[in-house]
Amino acid sequence: MERITPELSTEEIRDIDAEAGHYPHKSAVLLEALRIVQQHRGWVSDGSLQALASYLKCPIAELEALATYYQLIFREPVGKHVIYCCNSVSCWMLGGDGLQAHLQNRLQISPGESSRDGLFTLLETPCLGDCDRAPVMMVGREMYRQLSRETLDAMLSELRARDGQQPMSDHREQ
Amino acid sequence: MLKAGNAQAMATITIDNRQYEVDDGQNLLSACLSLKKNLPYFCWHPALGSVGACRQCAVVLFKDADDQRGTLVMSCMTPVKDGAIYSIDAPTAQDFRAGIIENLMTNHPHDCPVCEEGGECHLQDMTLMSGHTQRRFQGRKRTHNNQYLGPFINHEMNRCITCYRCVRFYRDHAGGTDLQALGRNHQVYFGRQEDGLLDNGFSGNLVEVCPTGVFTDKTYSRHYVRKWDLQTAPSVCEHCAVGCNTAPGARRDGKGDPRQLRRVTNLFHRQINGYFLCDRGRFGYEYANSAARIYTPQAALTQPLIQTTAGSAKVHQSLSPADAVARLAVTIAQMRSGNRRVIGIGSSRSSLENNFALQTLVGREHFYAGLDERSLALLKLVDRIQRDPRVHSPGTPEIERADMVIVLGEDIADTAPRIALAVRQAARSAQIARAGELKIPAWQDDSVRQLTGIRTPLLVASAERTDLDDIASCRVRAAPEQMVALADVLAQALTAESGEIHAPDIAGLDTGEFTALVEQLKQARHPVIVSGCGLQSQELLQAAARLAFAVAGHKEANHRQTDSREARAALYLACPEANSLGLAQLCDARQNLNQLHRERQSEHTPQPTTLLVMEADLYRQLPASVADQLCAGVDEIIQLEIVHNRTSARADLILPAAATPEYEGTLVNSGGLAQRHYAVYEGSGWIQASWRWLADAAAASGELAGAELSGDEETHARLQSLARWRHVTQLSVALAESYPELAPLAELGPDWDQTIEGQKTARQPHRYSGRTAIQAERQVAEYKPLPDDDAPMAFSMEGIQFACQSPLQANNWAPGWNSNQAIHCYQPKPGAARLGHSSGQPLARKAVVFHSDSAAGDAARPTADPSDGFRILPLYRMFGSGELSNYAGAIASVTEEPFAVFHPQDLELLSLTAGQQIAITESGDRWQLLAKVSDTIPRHCIGVSTGFTQMASIPGAYIEREQIAPGDA
């Protein structure tokens, strides 16, 4: 599955060093380093973890502890688009669970899984802070609000159409 | 009013309408346990402090006498407060605790019958204590995959209750980095990043630290029985010289398997091991069960088999113990009549009593320590330094409280691991002191650890990387003579009136760092200096002593210590073997193997001579060529030994000697504390303590016709007293009378007939099962338990059962407390010394002021051009450097191959590459080693693995370039 070599790229090292300058202790940069690697590679493989551990001179188990604690650090490959589906109370009252079932049916996946074409990963999340426009989902860093089955289908078509132009769903504008 | 403990400030508290006086400054949980209240807990540990994670120790705190409702507080996080009112029994507290347990149990499997923790499980105890005896939860339980954690520890994560004790011990206390809490919420997982050996040398403590069966002892697993089916007795660890107390457990299988020893667990000793053992101590026991074990007497065949014997190794055949004793008796009778010289070779890993019996048999002038010249000289030097009234040997609690530690050359993480663990705690003493200033009690573990950036000054001077490097404030990698220079300059700086002290010339130590060190040492009130015999340098030991004397002088001049003990400097000198210092008391520096070899070489009138070797491998102490000559120069070799080794291969008669858990004896640890270990089980086959073989043979020799007619009076008297000894304590008393230093042995522990209210101490608990059936396969009748001739203890369940009633009881158990955590029931308060426990006796060595002996230089100092020769620096490994533990299966499976470490430039100079097999040849010996490279090893030095079975003795201190060459692939 590993497409990118485990060694950190110059861009990754540059980004990590820039972050490290902001903290008094080296241990504080570990989380940011994980985020940076994921931003470049889509997820954090065992090899990436190893590369980070040797660059930051920290025990690999410590990085693993952080990576597994934070749900938005992926230790498995994810699809190009990661869909965060809110399962909290406001969205649920307005039919969020039905929408999620519809989405799962369309993509033929359960939460935590990726679609066979490698385009979509579905994750559940407790609240996205947009209750007044429930039900909502987030794809990458983009919010989709007041969803219905129709708008959800449109969202999927739009994402499929967009595929190829924007490689990483988790891409952040710096 | 009940009292608990007797320390300084006291607080009067009310618990469930009764008033108690307890030590102030502790937490309420610790106070309740001191009062022997049954209050459940998980995450708290007396050595790890409180974090308030598990919520299990909740009690109710009332505002005042009128408050009927109160508030729930976690007792481990609540400091006892004078006048405060608490309730353990209040229904709100009871319900809360039961609810917590029930919640934990929703995910805990119902697998107690197949779980190895069952019967000594803290979780079982706490579940019952809180009254949760019915499961209501019907849902699915969370499950995890388990990891392979190496040959020592089993992993069963489904049983986890997420108390975090494992990582708090492993990471925070022992400094391990490869065990972490992974995941979160409902899915917290305690494990490694991937499968593999837990790489911290204290991982075995997880077995006891984990309150349930997540981490269990894998070596025990292979021959598992329940705790209640084990017989135990107090023992002392034989795998290094620290002298940790252990509680080995044994049981016979009833089918004739001679391997009875099942496991080793910690036995609390406040001054030494506290709650923790190292992995060599915990898993090294397997040597007693190894395939190399000797169970029956064996004699070498006089007629060689059809030319099969390779070299000098002999072919042995079993013989009956009576024949073996008779054979030894003949030798003794010849000695009696003056027709034979018998040379006794004693052992630093065997008890004082065994060595004394051998010495009594052969006479003091024929007794030699089973050590080479260099090793014995080092021990005698340690002994002389320790006699100086300006120093004392610190116990573990004192090391943990030290406000500065200087480690000079000794790799304590590998040669005295428990001391290294104490030094690791000392690294936090400054943090704890700072917390104290902020009114944060030391037991508030998480809060104290928030104070980052405060570290106790810790200087680690070593030949290569050590496991203490991560906590060292100053690391110095140097050759021994540079360490000597460093110690001397530090000592000078302490005593000098004014400045003008220059930093010694050591790479990596700049003037700023050195000035800081001097300042820290001047400021320190309780510095501890640690060194030892590891680098085999007498000069280093002397330099450590000089530094300690300077510290003592500085303390006296500047801190005005009123207590004379306080004014002494703490100097810990690590010795190599469990009874190194004991053996050093019995002989002078001349009585070593090299001296014996020289005497034998210069002897011109050959006389029939026997080498009587007791629990010592000559080939481990001497180069093979020298040992060969020594063996070839005598016409008989008789060996008393536990396991087969290269010496026994040449012996004409081998007698099976008892391993430490199989007999009673006294060992003297590095601190000069004489401690007694007791027989845990009866031994298998014809095994008996070495002194008993000697006593039997001495008696038998007296019966041989004509023996008493010849020989001198003195020999006769010696042999008679040896033949008369029946109980090991008689030897202890005789030792006490013969050696003033050993006088305390007379008061050590109870005599064999000293019962308590007419009762002996039971080795087996009440619930020991199968007593009448265990031997039924071979014999229907129930055998009478063997009597113990040495201690008032029974090899059965009859007698005293509870630890507080007898110092001999090692089975930690109290009603409701089945796990090893029952120990607090036998302490005045958690962490305090065991009730009724005899903690050994310090040797009564006469105080003599030590004078550096400039003549006693290290042998073979390099004088030649250093580019052509190399210094040998002995390097040690926890797994690999222990003579006996190398026979333990699990340990042997993770021991690396013998190696030699070079500086990169030296490797280039010799045209060798790392990873290559090389050979070092010296005076006919050839060592095959794996070449390794390390930029931390000093130039012109080779770090050579020491004590490994494949290359037992190490090359001499200096090796010419021509002697190092590529080896066979």
Can you offer a commentary on this structure?
The complex is a heterodimer of chains A (174) and B (969). Chain A is an alpha+beta fold and 174 residues long. Chain A has two domains: 60 residues; 82 residues, Glutaredoxin. Chain A is 43% helix and 10% strand. In chain A, strand 3 and strand 4 form a beta hairpin. In chain A, helix 1 runs antiparallel to helix 2 and helix 2 packs across helix 3. Chain B has 28 helices and 39 strands. In chain B, helix 8 crosses helix 24, helix 9 runs antiparallel to helix 25 and helix 10 packs across helix 20. Chain B is globular and about 95 Å long. Chains A and B meet through helix 4 of A and strand 8 of B.
Give me the secondary-structure topology.
The complex is a heterodimer of chains A (174) and B (969).
Chain A: H1 10-20, H2 30-41, H3 46-56, H4 60-69, E1 81-86, H5 89-93, H6 96-107, E2 120-125, E3 137-139, E4 142-144, H7 149-162
Parallel strand pairs in A: 1-2
Antiparallel strand pairs in A: 1-3, 3-4
Chain B: E1 2-3, E2 10-15, E3 18-23, H1 28-34, E4 58-62, E5 71-74, E6 85-87, H2 91-105, H3 122-129, E7 153-155, H4 165-173, E8 180-182, E9 189-191, H5 206-209, E10 215-217, H6 218-221, E11 231-232, E12 235-236, E13 245-250, E14 261-266, H7 279-283, E15 298-300, E16 316-318, H8 321-336, E17 341-346, H9 352-362, E18 367-369, H10 373-386, E19 391-392, H11 396-401, E20 404-408, H12 412-415, H13 417-426, H14 429-437, H15 445-450, E21 458-462, E22 474-477, H16 480-495, H17 511-523, E23 527-532, H18 538-559, H19 564-567, E24 569-574, H20 580-586, H21 593-602, E25 609-614, H22 618-621, H23 624-632, E26 636-641, E27 653-656, E28 665-668, E29 673-677, H24 690-703, H25 713-724, H26 728-738, E30 761-762, E31 793-794, E32 841-842, E33 869-875, H27 889-893, E34 899-902, H28 904-909, E35 917-922, E36 925-933, E37 941-945, E38 958-960, E39 964-966
Parallel strand pairs in B: 1-3, 2-6, 17-18, 17-25, 19-24, 20-21, 20-23, 21-22, 23-24, 25-26, 26-27, 30-31, 33-37, 34-36
Antiparallel strand pairs in B: 2-3, 4-5, 4-6, 7-10, 8-9, 11-13, 12-13, 13-14, 15-16, 15-27, 28-29, 29-32, 33-38, 34-37, 35-36, 35-39
Helix pairs in contact in B: 8-24, 9-24, 9-25, 9-26, 10-18, 10-20, 16-18, 21-23, 24-25
